[in-house]
Amino acid sequence: MVKIIVNGADAILGRLGSFVAKELLKGKSVLLINCEKIIVSGKKVGFVNNIKRKREMGRGSSLKGPKYIRQEDRLVKRIIRGMLPWDRMKGREAYRRLRCEIGSADLKEEELKGLKEFKHRKPRNYTYMNEIVRALK
Known about the structure:
Number of domains: 1
Strand order of the largest sheet: 4-2-1-5
Order of helices and strands: EHEEHHHEHEEH
CATH class: Alpha Beta
CATH architecture: Alpha-Beta Complex
């Protein structure tokens, strides 16, 4: 099984996620590092307010309501799951091959040489994933 290591630092979430989803569907195993440094384009205020408004709508019981992940790596993994065909077996198997880590995951220098990095131009309005998670708490 081919293993791809992807650096998420300063990569746009949608472009990074679509690349990772395609590689997973090809049968490769993907390790995504630096999840806290991934960029989400758009204003943080609108994104966070949208989530908080949805959370307020489900205030009836503590057992119900929309629950949102508050760790960067798990949130990114959940977003990439939305890009996979989750209702089919190939999508579930692809999801099992995905690992997301905060930081560099204690990789060796030989493994870091084959690192895939994304060099996008940063959008005008953007927010880092760790700022979004901090605002959700």
